[in-house]
C-alpha cells in the first residue's frame, strides 16, 4: 500500500483532526474523521439507500462525519475538473 497525504482539516489543532489520504495503488480514500453520533446514524438508517438493502451498520464498518470543508481534498476525475460533462 502506498498512501499519499491529501489534506487535513484547515486550521487544525495539534491532534484529533479529520485527515484524508489516497491509496495510489487502489484509488481508495483513507479517511480519519469524527464518528457520527447516534442521532446521525439513526437518521441515515431511516433515509436508507437502496430499497431492500439493510440499514444496519455491520461490525466491520462505521459511519463517519466528514466536515464539508474537507471535500476540497477529495480527488476528482480529470474530465470533471476540466468541466467535461459529456458522460463518456
From TrEMBL:
<protein>
    <submittedName>
        <fullName>Uncharacterized protein</fullName>
    </submittedName>
</protein>
Amino acid at each position: 500500500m502506498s498512501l499519499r497525504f491529501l489534506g487535513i482539516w484547515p486550521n487544525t489543532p495539534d491532534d484529533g483532526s479529520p485527515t484524508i489520504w489516497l491509496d495510489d495503488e487502489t484509488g481508495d480514500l483513507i479517511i480519519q474523521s469524527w464518528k457520527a453520533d447516534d442521532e446521525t446514524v439513526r437518521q441515515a438508517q431511516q433515509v436508507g439507500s437502496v430499497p431492500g438493502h439493510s440499514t444496519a451498520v455491520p461490525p466491520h464498518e462505521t459511519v463517519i462525519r466528514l466536515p464539508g470543508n474537507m471535500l476540497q481534498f477529495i480527488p476528482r476525475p480529470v474530465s470533471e475538473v476540466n468541466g467535461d460533462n459529456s458522460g463518456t
